[in-house]
Amino acid sequence: MTDLTKLTAARTAERIASGETSAVEVAEAHLARVEAVDEKVHAFLHVDREGALETARRVDAKRAAGEKLGPLAGVPLALKDIFTTEGVPTTVGSRILEGWVPPYDATVTRRLKDADVVILGKTNMDEFAMGSSTENSAYGPTGNPWDLTRIPGGSGGGSSAALASFQAPLAIGTDTGGSIRQPAAVTGTVGVKPTYGGVSRYGMVAFSSSLDQGGPCARTVLDAALLHEAIAGHDPLDSTSVDAPVPAVVEAARNGDVRGMRVGVVTEFSGEGYQDGVMRRFTESVELLRELGAEIVEISCPSFTKALAAYYLIAPSECSSNLARFDAMRYGLRVGDDGTRSAEDVTALTREAGFGPEVKRRIMLGTYALSSGYYDAYYGSAQKVRTLITRDFQRAFESVDVLVSPTTPTTAFPIGERADDPMAMYLADLCTIPSNLAGNAAMSLPCGLAPEDGLPVGLQIIAPAMADDRLYRVGAAVEAAFHTRWGHPLLEEAPVL
């Protein structure tokens, strides 16, 4: 591993802009790192070596010509394989899209290219973002760089593992029920779910349209802020995009200070099912916030206890509708089309072969919940609970600036441990789901290692909608204090692959 792969994204961009190093050198160092370790980690599904080097050469040419480079120009990035990328395979971790090469870029992909970010390739993920461990990928699981026998979180485990194994300093994930924050927590990295609509969903393959949100993944709070700023903003191609200025996230990340802030501790995010080491690290984080000058307030949000049940009615219902487009008639896999079968038979055979067990489970659950006679009892009731959760957040934010909790109830569990127990798997997102249902902003950042297993623990910070800058203000202050206390970033304690 070279020094170039250990630099932060901000420092990498500074060195490229000053001519201290070239974008090509940086790209080649990271591509060499991918080649050296990804056979063990399996973070990437596709590495676009030529595309990455072409972008890097363009950045170097701009600098040589005296052009001013952007804040992330030449910085490598790992892109979750749910964003369409022109000329590069996009599989969403599914056999049903194996080999599909999109003819257009997602808005996030386009904005990354406009920012001269070097996209190294597409990362592994749970199929159609349905999972909490990346074990549901049709192309095999990803390992957690802290312990390759453990999960790296999901659905964006490939992106988080690429960061933690120093294959890329930046990554993009998507968060439907916690799929950015949960992987960040278990790999000792930073992950942010922006306000719903803050980052365009155009070209992001849909799982649950009212919940899905793309966002930044990084190794530091400042790096996440720089990436957030690059991809955020209104997009007329996305009807759910918020037409408002992007919050001042970079400024907040550069000036983290919690003095005078009121921080709410959610009482419902504790108790049975929470690992002792996770709660110990969380308690230390709360005390650290107090030491830094924040006022700590205990907050009760009773409807949060119903969030998991509501989510697993709303998300499958929306997925059953969104995945109806994969019918073997327009794109992707086609099975059984030998001229003797009807279109319906070909569609059924294709879905049987192309979708994995978890996707089929959620389609069936969602179709049932939306069926005649059950819509009001299930989907309609879940939406009412969603309203109650949103109101709990609104009441909480009347008295506090942000809320905090553990990001996940436990550290990374062994690969295969929960494969036959969907409910145990779903519980991994217990703390993250409420923010998706309400649409507000949330972040996970490292707060130490659990004493039982030496694995990372995440601190979750939750802010009101369009107050994403508060996440970075609090996150930067906590990160700086922890780094001072530890004497180094947490990832420096990770085993070297």
Structural features, described:
The protein is of the alpha/beta class. The chain has helices at residues 3-6, 9-18, 23-41, 49-64, 107-114, 157-164, 181-187, 221-231, 249-254, 276-291, 307-322, 343-354, 357-370, 376-399, 422-426, 433-438, 468-486, and strands at 44-47, 76-80, 118-123, 170-174, 190-193, 214-218, 262-266, 295-299, 402-406, 441-449, 456-463. The protein has one domain: Amidase signature (AS) enzymes, CATH 3.90.1300.10. The chain has an eleven-stranded mixed sheet, with helices on both faces. The protein is globular. The mean pLDDT is 96.
Anisotropy-based shape: globular
Q: Estimate what percentage of residues fall within beta strands.
A: 5-15%
Strand order of the largest sheet: 1-3-2-4-6-5-10-11-9-7-8
Number of domains: 1
Q: Examine the secondary-structure arrangement and name the CATH architecture.
A: Alpha-Beta Complex
In the CATH scheme, what's the topology name? Amidase signature (AS) enzymes
CATH superfamily: Amidase signature (AS) domain
Q: What's the overall average pLDDT, rounded? A: 96
Q: What's the alpha carbon Rg, rounded to whole Å?
A: 21 Å
Biggest beta sheet summary: 11 strands, mixed
End-to-end C-alpha gap: 9 Å
One letter per element, helices H and strands E, the order comes to HHHEHEHEHEHEEHHEHEHHHHEHHEEH
Helix content: 40-55%
Strand segment tally: 11
